Amino acid sequence: MSEEPIRIGRMQIKNRLVKAAIVENLATEDGQVANALIRLYDKAAHGGAGLIITGGAFVQPGGRNVRFQTGAHCNELIPGLARLARAGQVNGTRMVLQISHGGRQCPPHLVDGDVLAPSPVRDQFTKIMPRAMTEDEIKETIEAFGRAAGRAQEAGFDGVEIMAGHGYLVNEFLSRRTNHRRDQL
Ligand SMILES: Cc1cc2nc3c(=O)[nH]c(=O)nc-3n(C[C@H](O)[C@H](O)[C@H](O)COP(=O)(O)O)c2cc1C
């Protein structure tokens, strides 16, 4: 069963083994792919998985939630992302870049103290009170996800996965607990 190929949309995957997204914390401080990250994915691909989903790459500087997180927020990152895609695409393994915004779970020191969320609802875990995004900021973030996906495509990834779980920004919009907005209903 695990050896059987499967298709997700237009992406043909050679088997059912998937490496789930794990944020690596192995990029440079400005989000550039570093050699340690390449080595990790080279190893992962040689393990034989049909699909590798990278750890979340932040789509905007205000959405970074670990210090050495991979970035997908500007065009200067595309050559490094291309190296990353190629490192995993061994023997037909598909590489998917996860794109992410940490929302209210971004540590303040990584986002200039401006922790964003749909609504000002304190995070029970970090105790941080985020600032509600303006409508313009929401539009910018939606566009930033789109542009990050475009960079992934340009870099040669086989697809993107939008991080919409774990209490991060998209998840915060999807939950009534964290989204109290009445605009654009
Ligand atoms: C250190 C660490 C980092 C993670 N980073 C991500 C991530 O960037 N994106 C994501 O969707 N899941 C992330 N996860 C969740 C894992 O992909 C996985 O869903 C979770 O560990 C449960 O899978 P398991 O039951 O096979 O352990 C992370 C988990 C850990 C432990």
Structure description:
By secondary structure, the chain is of the alpha/beta class. The chain has a single domain (6-174), classed as Aldolase class I (TIM Barrel, Alpha-Beta Barrel), CATH 3.20.20.70. Helix content is 27%, strand content 15%. The strands form 3 sheets. Strands 3, 4, 5, 6 and 9 form a 5-stranded parallel beta sheet that branches. A two-stranded antiparallel sheet has the order 1-2. Helix 1 packs parallel to helix 2 (78-88) and helix 2 crosses helix 3 (135-155). The relative contact order is 0.16. Residues 20-23, 55-56, 98, 163, 165 line the site of flavin mononucleotide (FMN). Flavin mononucleotide binds next to loops.
Topology, element by element:
Layout: E1 6-8, E2 11-13, E3 18-19, H1 35-46, E4 51-53, E5 57-58, H2 78-88, E6 94-100, E7 116-117, E8 131-132, H3 135-155, E9 159-162, H4 169-174
Parallel strand pairs: 3-4, 4-6, 5-6, 6-9, 7-8
Antiparallel strand pairs: 1-2
Helix pairs in contact: 1-2, 2-3
The protein binds flavin mononucleotide (FMN).
Flavin mononucleotide (FMN) is lined by residues 20-23, 55-56, 98, 163, 165.
